[in-house]
Amino acid sequence: MKALYALLTAAIVSGSACAHADRSPDPTAVQPPANTARPMSEADAKGLAEFNERVTAYAALHQKLEASLPSKPAETTQAVIHQHQLALARLMVEARKDAKQGDIITPATQLVFRQVLARVFRGEEGRELKASILDENPGNVGLKVNASYPDEIPRSTVPPQVLSALPKLPADLEYRFIGDRLILLDVHAHTIADYMDKAFPV
Asked: Given the DSSP bridges, would you call strands 181-186 and 173-178 parallel, antiparallel or unpaired?
């Protein structure tokens, strides 16, 4: 199993290097969880490999489309930022018009994430951590891939224990919780790239 984990890590690093061969390595490229507490199974490796491949493809598309937009002036306004955000969102939605839930956080990836999060939220400390997230969490609302993040919903804080347990994301994406769902938020387009249900252990 250790050999499998080493092979997966090498593949992820190699894939990221090839995808960005024309520029300096991206320090925020997707990486496997830092605190995997048990040997990685073949199914785990498959789930993480799928996630890496699809997040890397999403980030490449995002960067390509954002680069096609006019540059924001050095001294900009909130209105200009908002227009840039809307323009990028339109491009991303058009490019991903057939996107659906599970395209990035695939079923295989969801299994890995639920196992990882179950370990994070176990025990008394885990229950307190979950309660702290839910305390500022508005509960489940209607979500749709490619839709704008609901403006009326505050962005819940994602504790460092969760961030260190899940694969690190490119700078364009963030993890967030809405209700019991874990979402991938495109922070520049302010849209939901993907999400998974039942992120919290019962």
From this structure: antiparallel
- 202 falls within a domain: no
Domain assignment present for 201: no
* Tens place of pLDDT per residue across the chain (202 aa): 433 344 344 444 344 433 333 434 443 444 455 544 556 788 899 999 999 999 999 999 999 999 999 988 888 899 999 999 999 999 999 999 999 999 999 999 999 999 999 999 999 999 999 998 888 776 778 899 999 998 888 787 899 999 999 999 999 999 999 989 999 999 999 999 999 999 998 7
* Count of structural domains, the chain: 1
Helix (H) or strand (E) holding 162: helix 160-165
Work out the angle at residue 91's Cα, subtended by the Cα atoms of residues 104 and 180, and round it to the nearest 5 degrees: 35
Structure tokens at 85: 């955000």
Q: Does residue 126 lie in a domain region?
A: yes
